[in-house]
Design goal:
Blueprint (H helix, E strand, L loop, with lengths): L2 E5 L2 E3 L5 E8 L7 E7 L6 E6 L6 E3 L7 E6 L4 E6 L8 E9 L2 E4 L3 E5 L2
Parallel strand pairs: 2-11
Antiparallel strand pairs: 1-3, 3-8, 4-5, 4-9, 5-6, 7-8, 9-10, 9-11
Length: 116
């Protein structure tokens, strides 16, 4: 059974940091590219970051460059999103996504709230 389980969300003050984790099971994690998306209330889901199978290629939306870092540990079947200098606009449910060919798997999401 394929599972992606996100964790690490919570309430943080503006300027703070969080590290999200997404642990996979039920498929060969190291053969899948991984992405993080987010969805704020009343808005469409948007792409945040991408990392390829081995972790050597990454990209981000322009607004996340320099603040967010995606990385993975294939030995632990886990992808991470390190988020620094958080802003209230970063408040959203964050989802991880695994893809390969026609395979497209999603986690249930983890809530991040940036507020003072």
């Amino acid at each position: 059974q394929v599972q992606l389980v996100e964790s690490g969300g919570g309430l943080v003050q503006p300027g703070g940091s969080l590290r999200l984790s997404c642990t996979a099971s039920g498929f060969t994690f190291s053969r899948y590219y991984m992405r993080w998306y987010r969805q704020a209330p009343g808005k469409e889901r948007e792409f945040v970051a991408y990392i390829n199978f081995g972790g050597g290629s990454r990209n981000y939306t322009d607004s996340k460059k320099g603040r967010f870092t995606i990385f993975r540990d294939n030995a632990k079947n886990t992808v991470y999103l390190q988020m620094n200098s958080l802003k209230p606009d970063d408040t959203a449910v964050y989802y991880c996504n695994a893809g390969r060919g026609r395979d497209d798997y999603w986690g249930q999401g983890t809530q991040v709230t940036v507020s003072s």
